Structures are given as C-alpha cells and as structure tokens.
Amino acid sequence: MSAPERLAVPPRPRSPRTLAAGTVVAAVVVGLHVAAWRGTEMDLGMLADGWHGMARFVSEAVPPDLTWDPVVRDGLKACLVTLWTGLLGTTLSIPFTAVLCALGSRAVNGDATVYQAARGIMSFLRAVPDVVFALVFVTAVGLGPFAGVLALVCNNTGVMGKLWSEAMEEADDGPAQALRIAGAGRAQLVAHAVLPACLPQLVGLALYRLDVNVRASLVLGLVGAGGIGFLINQSIQEFRFDQMLTYILMVLVLVVAVDLLSSLVRRRLAA
Amino acid sequence: MRRFLHALTALPLAALALTGCGSSGADATGGCPHGKVRFGVEPFEDAAKLTPAYKTLGDALRAKLGCPVEVQIVQGYSAEVLAMQNGKLDLAQFGPLGFVFAARRTGAEPVVSFGNPDRTVSTYKAGIWVKKDSPITSIAGLKGRTLALSDTGSTSGDALPRYALRKAGLADSDVKLQYAGGHPQSLIALTYGKVDAAEINTQQQATSTAEHQFDAAKYRQIWASDPIPNDPITVAKGLDPAFRSRLVAALTSLTPQDVAKVGSYLDVQPGPLVPVTRQTYQPLFDLAKTLGLTEKNL
C-alpha cells in the first residue's frame, strides 16, 4: 500500500500590483537607509582605524575602581537615591493616575466632555519630558531629588494613565453588563466588575513603570536631582573612566534587581 | 537640562572622539591638513548664541589661512579632549581647567587667548554671592548651608569655589553642594531663593545684569577668586610645524571685530587674540593638583 499522495503547496498568487508595491516599499526603505548612513557620517574605515582610541578608553576603564571610600560608598548611596526617586515617582502617581484614568476610560465614565478633558490632561503630561518638569520644579523646591520625584510623578501620571485606561477598556465587558442589567450603579460596577477584571494588569503595568522610572531618575541626576547619574557624569568630567565603570556596573545591578523583582511579582499575580 | 539635551546631540561626536586615528596627516608645505581645519569649542554659553559668534571668527580665520574652518561646539570638555587625543581636532578652545586635562592627556599647546584692547590677556573671576540680608559674611559661614555650583569640572563654577572652601578649612561635606547644571542656573537658584549662596562668575554677572536678571545691589559677594586667564585656543600636538606657524600667525592677525562677538560672551572688551603659553595657566595646573583631579595611568 503506497503512501497517500500529497498535494503540492499551491503557488501564492502574485498580482503585478503587489509586486510593484513591494518593489516601491523596498526601494524607499533602502533609500532611507542610504540617506541615514550619509546623514550620520557613518564610516566603517574610520571605525576600523580608530580601534586603539577605543582600546585606550577601555583600558582606562578596566579594571573598575572598587575603592570603598569614597567610590563604592558614594555609589551605593547614590544608587539608593536613584531607587527612591524612581519608587516615589511611581507610587505617588498612583492616586492621580487612578482618578484620571477612571475619568478617561469609557468603561467607567460615560460623560464625553469629562472623558476628553481627562485624555487631554494625560496627553499633556506625556508630551512634556520629565527633564522639563524637573527644571520647573527646581524653581519651586530647589535642587535635589525632591524635584526629580515631582517631575517623575507628573510624567508617570500621563503615561500610566494612558496604559491603565486602555487596560480597563480592553477588559472583558461581560461581568459589567451582567451587573448593569441587575441594576448596579457606576461605583458598584467599578468595584465589582471592572477592577477585579483588570487589577493584575494594572499592577503589572505599575511595576513596568517602576522599572522605567528608576532608569529615568538616572537622567534626572544630570539636572541636579542627584543619584548615580550625577556620579557617572562627574567621573567622565574628571576622566576617571575606572570610576565610571564602577558606577555603570552598579546601575546594571540596580536595573536587573528591579526587573527581577517586578517580574517575580507579576508572575505571582498571574498565578 | 541644556547639558542633557546637548549630551544627546553630542553622542555622535563622543563616539567619533573614541575612534581616533592619532595622525594629523598634514603635508610638509604648511598646506591645509585633511583639506580643512577642525576647530572644537567647549561651550561657555548657550550653543545657540555661540554658533553665529564662532561662524564670524571661523570665516575670518578661513580668509587668512585659505583653508575651510569647521567649527564644532561640543557638549563638554571631556568629548573635546578625547577627540583631540585621537587626532580628530586640529584647533580647540578649552575652559582653563578643561585645558589642564587637554594638556595632560593630549599635549595640546595653548597659542592664543582673548586679549584686552591693550593686548594683555583678558581675565575673569569666580565669585560666591549671597542675598544682601543674609547672615553669611564669609566662606567659613557656609558651613551647613546650601551652595549652588554650576557643573562638575567647571573652573569658576566648581573647582575654584571648592578650592576656596579648602582654604577656609571646610571639607566638601561640610557644605551642601548642589550642582545646578550651569552658570545661569546657579545664578537663578540664588535669585529664586532656593539656596543660601551661589557661584556667580564675573562673566555671568555681566551677562545677567545686561539681561536685567541680576541686580548686584540686592546681593552681596562673600568671596572672589584671583583673576583667571580667559579660555586658551590650543593646537594639537602632532600638527605639522609649518602649518602650525601659519595658523598662529593667522589667529594673531584677526581683528578685534573678528573676535568681538565671541569675546562679548566672555565679557571681554573688543581686542585681538594675544599669544599665551602653558605658563599663563600654571595656577590651574596647581589647582587641579590640590583638588586631586588626577587621572589613572598618567
């Protein structure tokens, strides 16, 4: 008994129009890359010639300077400041985010005007970079991590508000409809249907934002907000690349630790 | 803030700086090396203001030399020093302390600086100011108080004020030092009342007074540094000697009008560029040594 014959895979229909469109797209992509290559003055020959410039830079950075006083000690202190800034920037924005995203989510709020206003505020908070907020707050509260925290709260309210309200809108509508038919009010709907359906997602998003905000507070360090970003900048200014490497390794450990912690919590929530 | 935005734009330059090839490739006739002169400038003012000012200077230099002059306003002296170290700059202006690093790391030679009308080297002073009604009357009175500095590695905005603290018997940790991110930001921190004291150098004082953002009558200066010679313009160590002589001759023959625009941001009366030597900046080498600003492997 012979094996059943297999049908050959039918050829994909290729209309001339598809081919033409594909060719045009490919040509545009290639053209853009050529323009970008020239625009950024890419030169592989220069890179190959310049290897010992980089080698010298690396040789100055390796081995990292692990002197306890002041390098490692100051680095650890600064890492904590960076972590606290990111943490408060995330948690303190939760109440504002909750209000804004409730108003900016159709699942919760039926009033179109309020909905659009809430969305507008969130868009504005997202559009202004956190470094600009930091500068604004520096004039109010002076230099230091406090200004950095306030800046992150503003920016994060906008970003997390958008993520949360979308998560709420994507949640399963079934339980909410069932409660509505049973005569439940809007507050009851939120408490018993919308929140339970998307709480794990909201927490997951908040943890993801914590991860991002810890890294954002690095950059804020350059605006006088302190933290490890400032020390990295300082070590570059003083040509202490070995200290710079120490601080970068500390940042790496910090970011990985925050990442591991948040993924652990998210896994527990999903379970 | 501005620093950060500049940092973003300067990343390509920093990357370029790291990929140097170390040779200046000049021909032996004093002609233009690699067909152009690459001139780096450490920003002491907003790059938006410096770009047109240096265009005037660069155009005048091109006319004298017969070589195209490519001016690059860099983000900070560290990228500029690395670019020079790797043979990517022929000519570079540094802040006085930035020059110390450039000289140590790359052998950059100072050739001219901004002169007064009487052909002496122009100078400026670092200063620390408090509000007029402040109880602080001297450096010693800063103990436990907040002091705004500009940014790390700045001559008048970081190194000299910290040196003044040392001389008054205070450690950095005795004072709450806050880096504002630049000279204008440091001044604003004081005028907004966010710090007890702030570094304001004579250049920033002149600029802010002209812009009606600072009225010296409402503040009190509690410390001033010795005069600091203004920024040197340096040449790369490996430059062809014949071309180097032509370049120095061209720089010193620029008219006060050619350099007036750049000089105005340094609070200098229009004068020519005047010759300087490493000796002119000796006090800053001593300062770097005192503050322990020494790199590894040097």
From TrEMBL, chain A:
Residues passing through the membrane, by range: 20-37, 83-105, 131-153, 214-232, 244-265
A GO CC term attached to the entry: plasma membrane
InterPro entries associated with the record: MetI-like, MetI-like_sf, PhnE/PtxC
GO MF annotation: an example: ABC-type phosphonate transporter activity
Gene3D superfamilies: MetI-like (1.10.3720.10)
Keyword Transport part of the UniProt annotation: yes
Compartments, record wording: Cell membrane
The ABC transmembrane type-1 domain, residue ranges: 79-262
Keyword Cytoplasm: no
Short name of one Pfam family: BPD_transp_1
Keywords tagged on the record: Cell membrane, Membrane, Transmembrane, Transmembrane helix, Transport
Topology with respect to the bilayer: Multi-pass membrane protein
UniProt cross-references to NCBIfam families, sorted A to Z: PhnE (TIGR01097)
Family in the record: Belongs to the binding-protein-dependent transport system permease family.
Name of the protein this chain belongs to: Phosphate-import permease protein PhnE
From TrEMBL, chain B:
Entry keyword annotation includes Signal: yes
PROSITE patterns, A to Z: PROKAR_LIPOPROTEIN
Alphabetized CDD domains for the sequence: PBP2_PhnD_like
Superkingdom field: Bacteria
Annotated ranges, domain Solute-binding protein family 3/N-terminal: 36-269
Annotated signal peptide: 1-28
Record carries keyword Signal: yes
Keywords from the UniProt entry: Signal
GO cellular component, one term: ATP-binding cassette (ABC) transporter complex
Pfam family membership, one: Phosphonate-bd
Cross-referenced InterPro entries: PhnD, Solute-binding_3/MltF_N
Gene Ontology BP annotations: transmembrane transport
Family statement: Belongs to the phosphate/phosphite/phosphonate binding protein family.
Name the record gives this protein: Phosphate-import protein PhnD
Gene name tied to this protein: phnD
